[in-house]
Amino acid sequence: MTHEFILHTEGLSKTYGKQRAVDNLSLQIKAGTIYGLLGPNGAGKSTTLKMLTGLIRPSGGQIWVDGEPWQRRHLDSIGALIEAPALYGNLTAAENLTIHAKLRGLPNKAIHEVLETVGLQHTGKKRTSQFSLGMKQRLGVAIALLGTPKLIILDEPTNGLDPIGIQELRDLILSFPARGITVILSSHALTEVAQLVESIGIISEGQLKHQGPLRQDKDLETLFMDVVRGAKL
């Protein structure tokens, strides 16, 4: 049975002492789309993404994956690149992927498939310490793609990339829905986000202040500033 939302949350919250980092969040991510999760620094985006990937435990609320309450087994169908990828600089791209594949009990052919997907199949014996920042980010995406996830979560994937690296990563992300992969993308680069996403959620002060399709006639930067400033009034 397929569900309209590959992932949705109901009243998702995270409290640290008296501080409510995420407050009653109800996200709705449709299958086969690219969803932009936006917000200023300290809004609760990273905390939310870490809850979705099981890195931290929610204080309240519920996460649903494919219509089922979130369980650890769902991580088999969720790939994630949160912050910079953790790579072994003295190893090649294939060797880095081999370690992750073995940890997850995946066959070696999965390594060649994801290297091809991210365009790193010809890097051979080059160590990842010699990779450009863009190549390292693509290798991080390759690690997230191991095991053919249905959903991939990318947190600031274009951080520090030059225009060529950004273009390459943009083309890669745009190719995912056709491969059956839904994307949650968190980024401060609003111009870049506007070229990629179909729907957006804007978080401010831990709360979801706006959610819906990205209208082509509405400038995302203007919408973002209106929502965030309105939230602070």
UniProtKB/TrEMBL annotation:
Keywords: ATP-binding, Nucleotide-binding, Transport
Positions of the ABC transporter domain: 7-230
GO MF annotation terms: ATP binding; ATP hydrolysis activity
SMART domains: AAA
Keyword DNA-binding: no
InterPro entries in alphabetical order: AAA+_ATPase (IPR003593), ABC_Gallidermin_ATP-bd (IPR022501), ABC_transporter-like_ATP-bd (IPR003439), ABC_transporter-like_CS (IPR017871), P-loop_NTPase (IPR027417)
Top-level taxon of the source organism: Bacteria
Family classification: Belongs to the ABC transporter superfamily.
This protein's name: Lantibiotic ABC transporter ATP-binding protein
Species of the source: Paenibacillus oryzae
